[in-house]
Specification:
The protein has about 190 residues and is α+β, with helices and mostly antiparallel strands. The chain has two domains: about 80 residues, no CATH class; about 90 residues, Alpha-Beta Plaits, CATH 3.30.70.1950. Helices cover about 40% and strands about 30% of the residues. Strands 8-5-7-6-9 form a five-stranded antiparallel β-sheet, sandwiched between helices. The chain has a four-stranded antiparallel β-sheet with strand order 1-2-4-3. A hairpin with a 5-residue loop joins strand 3 and strand 4. Helix 4 runs antiparallel to helix 5. The longest helix has 17 residues. The chain is elongated and about 55 Å long.
């Protein structure tokens, strides 16, 4: 079993065929309402907590599972905080990561110019690339989220918001620009 923390609230777990056998489970029998599956997940969470520092005590877990060719399984387990808890944590800034995908570089440049021209608060922006697709990650405040969201709807394909889409992008895409991507893209010439 391989356990890897990929963000502050998400872990990637790779279970081999033998790991699945140890749990007396195969991928085709994984079901959210199954007692066998629940017992397996509880056992996995205990093992994960021994290796990485993530609090799984929240009632809100998002688990995504994918079968592998060797009879094993790839899982992403994310803690989804209650919206009440997120706002109560004064020691954490109220930031949200928005992930947007583009198949056209020029459109992405135009979006970046629009965001800067409209004086929208952007804390951090990153650019990722894979298979002729670009992903722009924008970290902003909750207050600015709606303004940015409207621009993203107009110019790109919104993949999602929060840690999960960001973690998937970070895992499977190549980072092209780690900070200030919007500012750097906005000054480029369109083709």
């Amino acid at each position: 079993m391989i356990i890897e923390r990929i963000s502050k609230s998400t872990v990637k777990v790779i279970l081999s065929f033998n790991d699945m056998c140890d749990y007396q489970m195969d991928f085709s029998r994984l079901e959210s309402n199954s007692l066998e599956t629940k017992n397996m997940i509880i056992s996995l969470l205990k093992k994960i907590q021994q290796k990485v520092d993530i609090d799984f005590s929240s009632d809100n877990l998002f688990i995504e599972a994918f079968s592998s060719n060797d009879g094993g399984c790839l899982m992403y387990i994310s803690v989804i905080e209650d919206s009440d808890n997120v706002h109560e944590k004064a020691n954490k800034p109220n930031l949200i990561a928005l992930t947007t995908e583009f198949d056209d570089f020029n459109t992405m440049i135009i979006l970046c110019r629009q965001l800067l021209n409209n004086d929208i608060e952007i804390i951090r922006s990153q650019l990722y690339y894979k298979d002729d697709m670009f992903r722009l990650i924008i970290e902003t405040s909750f207050e600015s989220e709606k303004k940015i969201y409207n621009f993203l709807l107009e110019y790109g394909k919104i993949i999602g918001k929060g840690d999960f889409p960001y973690s998937i992008t970070k895992e499977y895409y190549q980072c092209v620009e780690n900070d200030k991507a919007i500012e750097k893209l906005a000054v480029l010439q369109t083709i």
